[in-house]
Amino acid sequence: MDNVNQPEFWQQRYESGSIQWDMGQVSPPLKAYIDQLPESTKDQRILVPGAGNAYEVGYLHEQGFTNVVLVDFAPAPIKDFAKRYPDFPAEHSICADFFELSPKDYQFDWILEQTFFCAINPSRRDEYVEQMAALLKPNGKLIGLLFNVDFGRDEPPFGGTLKEYQKRFAPYFNIDVMETSTNSHPARQGSELFMSLQAK
Ligand SMILES: C[S@@+](CC[C@H](N)C(=O)[O-])C[C@H]1O[C@@H](n2cnc3c(N)ncnc32)[C@H](O)[C@@H]1O
User: Fold this and answer.
1) Which among 17, 69, 79, 188 could bridge 184 via Cys, Cβ 3.0 to 4.6 Å?
2) Is residue 40 classed exposed, middle or buried when 0-12, 13-18 and 19+ CB atoms within 10 A define those classes?
3) Which residues touch 54 (CB under 8 Å, ≥6 apart)?
4) CA of 8 to the centre of ligand 1 (A)
5) 50 CB less than 6 Å from ligand 1?
6) Along the 200 residues of the chain, how does pLDDT read in single tens digits?
7) CATH topology for 2-18+25-199?
8) How far is the CA of 22 from the centre of ligand 1 (A)?
9) Which atom of ligand 1 approaches the CA of 11 most closely?
10) pTM for this structure?
């Protein structure tokens, strides 16, 4: 299970086309969230970690959000994204380990979670919560989706429950929303929670 902490594991999945998590489109609940944001948020600093093929980043960019940063430690999807979006600022496309981003260098207004939490080793979940909180500006938000399913497997996606998430996030975040998403992609209908959390 430790190999999911290594970029090689994910790079190999991209190279072999074994990317079952990839929806090939922006996740519908996240598109709906982005669509209701006011014009005044277009210059907010946004992070999408474990972005993979980064459909959400592409969508934000198309909608005129100018300060979006994508991070993934596998080079393949980063290269591919650059080909698809040649006008996306190269300095906002970062091949790095999320856990090694320094909060001194990176501070965001909001962060978008999309099948990243379920990809990391579950033993690192508290570290994930702490790092998310550290990378957010005061009152910054963590927005996204989490699986509300126990997949019962020793490989990603690693699932979880609403109760577990509430307990893990509560020390660092106010949980404004964490409930079953009503507008998920058909393949994920009923299996994911939409969350809107505010850093304490
Ligand atoms: C299941 S995929 C999801 C990709 C994308 N969010 C999506 O929904 O299509 C998980 C992604 O997280 C990346 N990843 C896993 N651990 C990471 C880490 N510690 N730092 C940066 N990226 C990581 C992987 O390379 C992979 O692209």
Assistant:
1) 188
2) exposed
3) 48, 70, 72, 77, 81
4) 12
5) yes
6) 669 999 999 999 999 999 999 999 999 999 999 999 999 999 999 999 999 999 999 999 999 999 999 999 999 999 999 999 999 999 999 999 999 999 999 999 999 999 999 999 999 999 999 999 999 999 999 999 999 998 988 899 999 999 999 999 999 999 999 999 999 999 999 999 999 999 99
7) Rossmann fold (3.40.50)
8) 11
9) 25
10) 0.97
User: What is the rounded distance in angstroms from the CA atom of residue 139 to the CA atom of residue 65?
Assistant: 20
* Ligand 1 pocket test, candidate residues 22, 25, 68, 72, most atoms within 8 A of CB: 72
* Listed residue (146, 173, 176, 151) closest to 162, CA to CA: 146
Q: What is the DSSP letter of 63?
A: T
Residue 21 Cβ contacting ligand 1 at under 6 Å: yes
3-class SS of residue 82: helix
Element (H, E) at 47: strand 46-49
C-beta 117 within 6 A of ligand 1: no
